[in-house]
Amino acid sequence: MYRSWWKILAASLVIYATVAGFLMPVPRMAILNETIRNLYFHVPMWFAMIVLFSISVWYSVRFLASGKESDDLRAVESANTGIIFGLLGLVTGALWAGYTWGEFWSFDPKQNFAAIAVLLYFAYFVLRNAVDEEQKRGKISAIYNIFAFPMMVVLLFVLPRLQDSLHPGNGGNPGFNSYDLDSRMRLVFYPACLGWILVGYWVYSICFRLRSLENKDIH
Amino acid sequence: MQLATQVKELVRKEMVLEWRSKYALNGILLYVVSTVFVCFLSFVSIPDKITWNALFWIIMLFGSINGVSKGFLQETRGQQLYGYFLASPAAILLSKMIYNVALMMFLTLVALGFYTLVFHYVPADMPMFLAAVLLGSLSFSTIFTMVSAIAAKAGNGGMLMAILSFPVIVPVLIMLIKLSKNAIDGLDRSVSMDEAGILLVINVLAVSVSLLLFPYLYRD
C-alpha cells in the first residue's frame, strides 16, 4: 500500500481534474466559450507524452551503456505509451479545432509538426521490426531514438514559434496565461497535468512488467 | 592531431574511390538532370515562384537521399571491419560527412545551374538563394550520413533509409523552403537570419549527437 500512494494520487487527481474541469467556472471568452475547458484535457496529454519520451531516451542511453535487456524494454514501452498520449493529444486538439477553427484538420503548423513528431516514433517502431537479433535491435533503435529526440524537440517547441499559427500562444494569439486572469483555471490545470503524467507513468510501468513477463516465458 | 590526419586520409580515400568508379557522381547527376527534364516536359513553364522553389527542393531531397545513403550502404562488411580496424569511429563518421558535404554541394550547384537554365528563372536575391542551397546540402549531408549508418546496420537499406530520414529532415526542409522563399522574393537579408541560425544550430546538434552515438553503432 505504501508504495502505491502515487497511483492513488494519480487516479484522484485525474478524477478531480475531469469533474472540476467540467463543473468549475471558467472565464467567458468569445469564440472559445466552453471549449476553453479542453485545456484541462488536451495540454496534459502533451506533457505526459514529453515525459514518457524523455524516459524512453533516458533508458536508451542507459541501454547503450549497460546492454541490459530490461533497459531496452523500458525504452520501447515508454515510447509506446508516449505515442498513445501523442495520438490522444492530436485527437483532442482536432476536436477542439473543429469547434473553434471550423475544421478538424486545417493543416495548421502546430498540427502538422505534432503529426510529424508522432511519425518519428512510428519510424522508430518500423526500425525495431526490421531487425531480428535482440541486442542489435536494441542498440540500433536506441541510437535512432536518441538521434530523433532533439529533432522532435525542434519540431514541437522551436518551429511552431516561427510560423503563423492559430494555436493559442502562437503567432500573436493569446495563450493560456492571458486567459487566466484570476488563477481559477490553474487550480484545475496543474493537478490535471500532474495526474495525467502520473497515469502515463503508471500505464508504462504496467506495459513494461507485462512485456518482461512475456519475455521470461520465451526464454 | 591523429584524428585530423585520419580524417584527411579517409576523405582522400573516399574521393579516390569515387573518382575511379564515378558511380555516385554520374548517377546523381543523371538523376537530377533527368528529373529536371521530366519536370520541364510536364510543366513546360512554371508560372509561379512557389512551385519553382518547392520543385527544386523535392528534386534535391531525393537526390541527396540517393547520394548520401550510398556511403554506408554500399560498403561490404569486410570493408567496414577493415576500416574500423584502421581508424577511430569518429574519424570514419567525420570523413564520410565531410565527403558527403563536398559531394552534395558540388551536385547541388550543378543541379541549380541546370534548373535555372531549363526554367529560365533566376531568384531575385541569387547570392542569398545560393547560401540557402549550400546550407541545405550541408544539412542534408550531415543528417543523412548518420541515418544511413543506422539503416545500413539494420540490414535492409533503401526502404528504411526513406522511412527513418523523412520525419527527421522535415524541420530542416521547412526552414530551407522558408529561407529560399525569402531569397526568391528578394526580402531584406536580415529577415532570413533566424532561419539560417536555426539551420546551423540543427547542423551542430546533428553532428555532435552523431559523433556521440556512432561509436556505439559501429561496434557489433
TrEMBL record, chain A:
<comment type="similarity">
    <text>Belongs to the CcmC/CycZ/HelC family.</text>
</comment>
<dbReference type="InterPro" id="IPR002541">
    <property type="entry name" value="Cyt_c_assembly"/>
</dbReference>
<keyword id="KW-0812">Transmembrane</keyword>
<feature type="transmembrane region" description="Helical">
    <location>
        <begin position="82"/>
        <end position="101"/>
    </location>
</feature>
<dbReference type="GO" id="GO:0017004">
    <property type="term" value="P:cytochrome complex assembly"/>
</dbReference>
<keyword id="KW-1133">Transmembrane helix</keyword>
<dbReference type="InterPro" id="IPR045062">
    <property type="entry name" value="Cyt_c_biogenesis_CcsA/CcmC"/>
</dbReference>
<comment type="function">
    <text>Required for the export of heme to the periplasm for the biogenesis of c-type cytochromes.</text>
</comment>
<feature type="transmembrane region" description="Helical">
    <location>
        <begin position="143"/>
        <end position="162"/>
    </location>
</feature>
<feature type="transmembrane region" description="Helical">
    <location>
        <begin position="113"/>
        <end position="131"/>
    </location>
</feature>
<dbReference type="GO" id="GO:0005886">
    <property type="term" value="C:plasma membrane"/>
</dbReference>
<dbReference type="Pfam" id="PF01578">
    <property type="entry name" value="Cytochrom_C_asm"/>
</dbReference>
<feature type="domain" description="Cytochrome c assembly protein">
    <location>
        <begin position="23"/>
        <end position="160"/>
    </location>
</feature>
<keyword id="KW-0201">Cytochrome c-type biogenesis</keyword>
<protein>
    <recommendedName>
        <fullName>Heme exporter protein C</fullName>
    </recommendedName>
</protein>
<feature type="transmembrane region" description="Helical">
    <location>
        <begin position="187"/>
        <end position="207"/>
    </location>
</feature>
<dbReference type="GO" id="GO:0020037">
    <property type="term" value="F:heme binding"/>
</dbReference>
<dbReference type="InterPro" id="IPR003557">
    <property type="entry name" value="Cyt_c_biogenesis_CcmC"/>
</dbReference>
<feature type="transmembrane region" description="Helical">
    <location>
        <begin position="40"/>
        <end position="61"/>
    </location>
</feature>
<dbReference type="GO" id="GO:0015232">
    <property type="term" value="F:heme transmembrane transporter activity"/>
</dbReference>
<keyword id="KW-0472">Membrane</keyword>
UniProtKB/TrEMBL annotation, chain B:
<protein>
    <submittedName>
        <fullName>ABC transporter permease</fullName>
    </submittedName>
</protein>
<dbReference type="InterPro" id="IPR003544">
    <property type="entry name" value="Cyt_c_biogenesis_CcmB"/>
</dbReference>
<keyword id="KW-0472">Membrane</keyword>
<keyword id="KW-0812">Transmembrane</keyword>
<feature type="transmembrane region" description="Helical">
    <location>
        <begin position="23"/>
        <end position="44"/>
    </location>
</feature>
<feature type="transmembrane region" description="Helical">
    <location>
        <begin position="198"/>
        <end position="218"/>
    </location>
</feature>
<dbReference type="GO" id="GO:0017004">
    <property type="term" value="P:cytochrome complex assembly"/>
</dbReference>
<comment type="similarity">
    <text>Belongs to the CcmB/CycW/HelB family.</text>
</comment>
<dbReference type="GO" id="GO:0015232">
    <property type="term" value="F:heme transmembrane transporter activity"/>
</dbReference>
<feature type="transmembrane region" description="Helical">
    <location>
        <begin position="105"/>
        <end position="122"/>
    </location>
</feature>
<keyword id="KW-1133">Transmembrane helix</keyword>
<keyword id="KW-0201">Cytochrome c-type biogenesis</keyword>
<feature type="transmembrane region" description="Helical">
    <location>
        <begin position="50"/>
        <end position="69"/>
    </location>
</feature>
<keyword id="KW-0813">Transport</keyword>
<dbReference type="Pfam" id="PF03379">
    <property type="entry name" value="CcmB"/>
</dbReference>
<dbReference type="GO" id="GO:0005886">
    <property type="term" value="C:plasma membrane"/>
</dbReference>
<feature type="transmembrane region" description="Helical">
    <location>
        <begin position="158"/>
        <end position="177"/>
    </location>
</feature>
<dbReference type="GO" id="GO:1903607">
    <property type="term" value="P:cytochrome c biosynthetic process"/>
</dbReference>
<feature type="transmembrane region" description="Helical">
    <location>
        <begin position="129"/>
        <end position="152"/>
    </location>
</feature>
